Amino acid sequence: MTQPSQQTLDSITTTDTTIRTVKQLDIIKNTKPRQGIKRDLTTPVLTLKGDKIDDLTLGGDVFDVPIRKDILHRVVRWQLAKRRQGTHKTKTRAEVRGGGRKPHPQKKTGRARAGSIRSPLWRGGGVVFGPVLRSHEHKLNKKVRRLGLKCALSAKSWEGRLLVLDSLKPESHKTKDMAKVLDYLMQRAPLTREGEQINANPLLQENPRRSVLFVDTAKDGEDGGELLRKSTANLVGVDCIPAEGLNVYSILKRDYLVMSSAAVEAIHERLRKPVRPLRLYGDRVPADDDDDDDSDDDEEEEGEDDESDEEEEEQEKISK
Q1: Stated pTM of the model
Q2: pLDDT in tens, 47-106
Q3: CA gyration radius, the chain
Q4: How confident is the model at residue 203 (pLDDT cuts 50, 70, 90)?
Q5: I need a surface site. Which of 23, 47, 68, 93 has the fewest CB within 10 A?
Q6: CA-to-CA distance for 165 and 49, rounded, in angstroms?
Q7: Ramachandran area for residue 160 (φ above 0: left; ψ -120 to 50: alpha; else beta)
Q8: What's the CA gap between 257 and 179, in Å, rounded?
């Protein structure tokens, strides 16, 4: 793409009566890569050794949505509130043991009036408005939760902290071997984004953090599975989660997000499903067999009524 000339930039940035055409504005907007325009992204597919074998297209509607911090905050608060046990409890003056007798007479003692030694004013008394057993869970719409997951994935993709591997299944279950693979993989992690440097801090470049979240298709999947979880169980700052359980808090908690190509396809399928499936107006509930049985019963009742009428007519003739 050709860069705009200095004369074009000067004519657009001046405050005189120069007309800013749409074409000139597009030239300036496209000079640097933009985030959140929902364009498809191309990322290399690596092996556990860091060798590139293929390219994979990430959907812009999932991995390049505008990063909204307010949505991420709401989803994280919802997740942390939902996981709280809510088993906090203090005793009121009615629940504290003792205090059934009046400690001293009402009058003629010079002391303040008191009816129980378990009053909240006394040491060892009950607690007023203390915590009780309750659930901290609150409602959050499905669309907001889905948007939060898209924002978290887009943030990792924009920061260059998203790695896609063909398979996460290691050769052995030993933690030592997996630690070497992880160190080598993090050293070769991309530090630039389309010519722009991501990690400008030299301390992070010399000592990058090793906090990683591995995402495979399932706990017993072929792209990671049980072997991946055994090899990373004792590594600090390393988590494994299936694509079905991927959530915002787990993504933001770790620095790097490493996914298998099959997990990426599963995430695409999961986030592209309609929140509420459509129903056709022409759909009808099929008739049950009970309706046929009821119709047969009605025919039998009608036949019995005819027979009873004929018998009554014969009895009238005999009587005459």
Answers
A1: 0.70
A2: 888 888 889 999 999 999 999 999 999 999 999 999 999 999 999 999 999 999 999 999
A3: 36
A4: very low
A5: 23
A6: 10
A7: left
A8: 16
Residue type at 144? V
Output 312 or 94, whichever has higher pLDDT: 94
Return d(Cα 133, Cα 160) in angstroms, integer.
Answer: 44
Other CB atoms within a 10 A radius of the CB of residue 223 amount to: 20
Q: Helices (DSSP H) in the chain: which residue ranges?
A: 6-13, 22-29, 60-63, 69-82, 142-158, 175-187, 202-206, 225-231, 248-253, 261-271, 289-319
Instruction: Using CA atoms of 301, 306, 312, 314 in order, give the dihedral in degrees to the nearest 10.
Output: -140
Cβ 228 vs Cβ 138: under 8 Å? no
Section 216-221 average pLDDT: 90
Burial 149-176 (b: 16+ CB within 10 A, else e): bbbbbbbbbbbbbbbbbbbbbbeeeeee
Residue 264: φ, ψ to 5° = -65, -45
DSSP state of 5: P
CB 147 within 8 A of CB 63: no
Q: Are strands 238-242 and 41-46 parallel, antiparallel or unpaired?
A: unpaired
Q: Are 226 and 170 in contact (CB under 8 A)?
A: no
In one-letter notation, the amino acid at residue 52 is K
* Residue 135 CB neighbour total at 10 angstroms: 10
Calpha distance 150→167 (Å, rounded)? 23
> How would you classify the pairing of strands 256-260 and 162-165?
parallel
Q: What are phi and psi of 83, to 5 degrees?
A: -85, -5
Residues in contact with 87: Cβ distance below 8 Å, sequence separation at least 6, in sequence order: 133
Contact 115, 108 (CB under 8 A): no
* The two three-digit tokens of residue 127, written as one number: 């607690």
- The structure tokens listed for 121 are 């004013």
